[in-house]
Amino acid sequence: MSRTDCRPLGILLLLCAALWLLLGAPLASRLPDDYQTALYFDSVARAREAPTDDWKRIVLIGRRLDTTLLSTAKRSVIQSDAYWALPGGELYFENAGVYAVDRVTRQNMPGLGDVERTGQFLFPPGMDRGPHVLWDSQLAGPRAMKFAGVDEVDDVPVHRFTFQVQGLDETLGYGHLPDVPERYRALTDSDGVLLIEPASGVLVDYIERGRSSFTKPDGTVIAPFFVWNAHFTEETRRSQLKRAEQVSRRLWLLQTLVPLLLAGAGVVLLIFGMRAARRNA
To answer: Torsion angle, CA of 30/34/40/46, rounded to 10 degrees?
Structure first.
């Protein structure tokens, strides 16, 4: 074999392309070990503190903060806190917890975290059409998701999922109310829409409406006390869309372009090597 024979290098590059697809590409799609995000919501609601009180219209500002506490090769432990407050800062509802999340599937990992949870905490790149279960800090329990079609957000194709929950116990989140939990429990019914950019798995818009009710310990519903609708702020929607585009571009670069360049260079070197070998034969 000639010193200028480039066939071994071509074979090496093809092997590198195969190894990258097998090992490198999955690593590139893992949840970052320093993942953190802040999401903000607007909400208009009706509320009251007792079953016989008059309703009051209130405006709420929602905030969800996710912060990675520690991360290993397989999982991340994430502190996720959701707060709803009046414009003056008075807290109306909160739900905080520690979630153990699989860095590949973005699912809640059983046996870890401060509560035994199932379903998705976030959504993975290449999000399929389900159905799925979502359990994050937006609500105190799981909610079922169903694929409902393809939409567009600012000309970007997204998957639309609908969700629904009934009778979810959120008593702990409403502890500021006078008779909760001493006299009443607080049960929530809600439904909504999730718009997910499928290549990145990034949630680009969130729309929800719901009702929480005073309920006796035996499950008898007394009366609703909080009726709301909520959605991403315009700034959050834009920032999430930008994040989706950045993640999709990075994944395309690492999962598609890099192996194609390696494989293409390998094939070219093999062809030149074989032609050179025939000329030298």
So the answer is: 80
